[in-house]
Design goal:
Layout (H helix, E strand, L loop, with lengths): L6 H6 L5 E5 L6 H13 L5 E3 L17 H14 L3 E4 L3 H9 L4 E4 L1 H4 L2 H10 L7 E4 L6 H13 L5 E5 L17 H9 L5 E4 H5 L5 H10 L4 E5 L17 H10 L10 H39 L7 H17 L4 H19 L1
Parallel strand pairs: 1-2, 1-8, 2-3, 3-4, 4-5, 5-6, 6-7, 7-8
Bound molecules: phosphoenolpyruvate (PEP) and manganese (II) ion.
Amino acid sequence: MKDSFDIRRWIENPEELLLIAGPCSVESREQIFDTAKKLHELHRVNILRGGIWKPRTRPNGFEGIGEEGLKWMKEISNDTGLPVMTEVATPEHVELALKYNVDALWIGARTTANPFSMQQLADALEGCDVPVFVKNPIAPDLKLWIGAFERLASSGLRHLAAIHRGFQDVNSNPYRNNPRWEIPIELRRKNPEIPIITDISHICGCRNLLHDTAQKALDLATNGLMIESHCNPDCALTDAEQQITPDNLKAMLSDLIIHKSKSNNADFLLQELRTQIDNIDDELLQLLAKRSEISSKIGVIKKENNLTVLQLDRWNSILSKHIEKGMTLGLKEELVKEIFELIHKDSIERQL
Ligand code: PEP
Ligand code: MN
């Protein structure tokens, strides 16, 4: 039976949570067919992923099955209706992926990081309307990520989405790639029309962090998740530590709280403002602690000089000065008065 999931339409209106799942690499006909069948049976997966050409940190590892894998992917797509997706890093990859009618492409983190490669891909894709998902560059550099979208858009690509897969940092502990959530949030703020999905597998690098990271992404109103899933993850040829079985994927999904209202922007923008509020509250607390320390020092001087703790003139002048200033800043008189009464009370108690 042919699924009706339409990737282009989803990119235009990413209301439902997109789920991309599949192995890190297509390894053999049996492996990809078995994995795809199990994932399809979950009735939750929208797109099957599978790496055909693998960027490896060091040579002589498994570098991907190549063109043959594309035939299997397309066969699966024709049989099940599940759209399929693979990574392209060179114009030759683009040509082959298009030849086999792969439904969507993704651009890997190492490629996004390289403007020369990005431009070659944009040129190779000129005039195509294939949906392209762009992973963030390995370095935490938002401009490079946005630059990749600009190059693709200049080639006429109209269906673009982002994949947040974390960033290489000196210290990413406990993650494989530091999520740096503020970066996709800033991308959302600057380019609200680009849906962003979260590749929790490459952020985590291990299985035990996947659930909590997925929940965090959902709380931050991600538009979707990319999760590496393999029929026999322990024997996977690439990224074995982070892949999970389709059964475990099912269990994890049923455990996640998926927020209903996906109003494109509101959740991300709220989160951004709340982060700002948290930072301000933090500063307020630090300032209060600093003020208390100074107040204690004043208490010592008063004691040494036999002065009363309460200095009414000083207190009156502080209060009226702050109320006046607060009002010019648009704060209510009552609010400023109550805050400073509490602060003053604490100061007095410290000095007694
Ligand atoms: C992948 O998705 O398997 C992959 C290689 O990802 P990234 O480019 O995020 O490292
Ligand atoms: Mn991988």
